[in-house]
Amino acid sequence: MKARAIALTRDPVNEAILALLAGFACLAAMLMLTPPAHAQVFGGQPYVAAPDPAVEALRNKVIQLESDLKAATDRSEKLGFDLAQVRKTAEDAKAAQAAAEQKYQELMSRVEKLEQIASGDTAALAAARAARPGEVTINAAAAQTGATVVAPPVNLASLPEDEEGMFRESRTLLFDNEYASAEAAFGAFLKKYPKSKNAHEAQYMLGDTLLYQNRYGEAVSAYEKLLNSYPNSSNGAMAMAKLGRSLRLMNKKSEACQVLALLPKQFPKASNQAKETAQSERERAGCK
Fold first, then answer.
1. Are 174 and 202 in contact (CB under 8 A)?
2. Rounded distance between C-alpha atoms, residue 155 and residue 82, angstroms
3. Which residues, other chains included, contact 237 with Cβ-Cβ below 8 Å and sequence gap of 6+?
4. If both were cysteines, with which of 100, 185, 200, 235 could 230 make a disulfide (CB 3.0 to 4.6 Å apart)?
5. What is the pLDDT of residue 76?
6. What's the pLDDT score for residue 147?
7. Its pTM surpasses 0.85
8. What pLDDT score does 13 carry?
9. Which of 198, 165, 164, 202 lies closest to 184 in space, CA to CA?
């Protein structure tokens, strides 16, 4: 009986069945120990990695930098346009100033010639007659007879009330040879705006209005006030030259020469016009 049982146990069929059962047991154990990720692959679901926070932060920073760069570029373009407009305005203002200065120099040159006529310079009179026959004949006649052509004084109430407008109108009256009206206008301007940035120029031109009306003593006082009250005025050198002229025309040639001798020392950077005017006055006064 025992021998039969052993023979049954060693039966090849039984051994095959036992081996098959052992294989199934191993396969079941392997499936139970497989990681979950593999189960996803085997299950047909694709594996999707979670977003990396560092990469996302870097991407957002790049987007912000691009936005800032665009804003900076827009501001730069606007500033460039504004700068071009400012440069154009400055160039236009410079051109207008140059034109105004040229006109002023032409008018001053004209005044110089008329002053030469008034002082009896026959050569200047002949040249002026050739240039402006009708106008100079009237002025020359007045100069030869000692008379002064006086226009009706300006109505001060008609002058602009604002500072710039009043100064501009006063200067226009001077350039138009309306000396009495210009005198009144500049006097009113200095009284109303004594601390104006144009006060020094108004004082200088007030002296001119008096000089051109042959009121030399009052012109001396006006020029002296400019030199004392506004020592740094851009008109200082010309005022000193015309102070010397006024003294010469008062026949105070010695005093005129003293004043003219001080000009190069007091105004070493005087304009060529001031230097030429002073030199002309020195020659007329016979300064040594």
1. no
2. 44
3. 263, 266, 267, 270, 271, 274, 275, 278
4. 200
5. 77
6. 41
7. no
8. 58
9. 202
Q: Which two tokens stand for residue 150?
A: 């006086």
Query: Are 253 and 285 a contacting pair, CB within 8 Å?
Result: yes
Q: How many residues does the chain have?
A: 288
Q: Which residue has the tokens 């987007």?
A: 63
In the block, tokens 């851009």 appear at 234
pLDDT at 148: 44
CA 52 to chain CA centroid, nearest Å: 56
State both tokens at 272. 């060529």
CA distances from 220 to 52, 167, 170, 239, 250 (A): 91, 22, 20, 9, 10
Could you tell me where the DSSP H helices lie in the chain?
2-9, 12-32, 36-42, 53-118, 122-131, 133-145, 163-175, 179-192, 199-211, 216-229, 236-249, 253-266, 272-285
Domain at 150-285: CATH code: 1.25.40.10
What residues in the chain have per-residue pLDDT under 70?
1-50, 97-153
- Residue 48, pLDDT score: 60
Sequence ranges of the domains in the chain: 78-147, 150-285
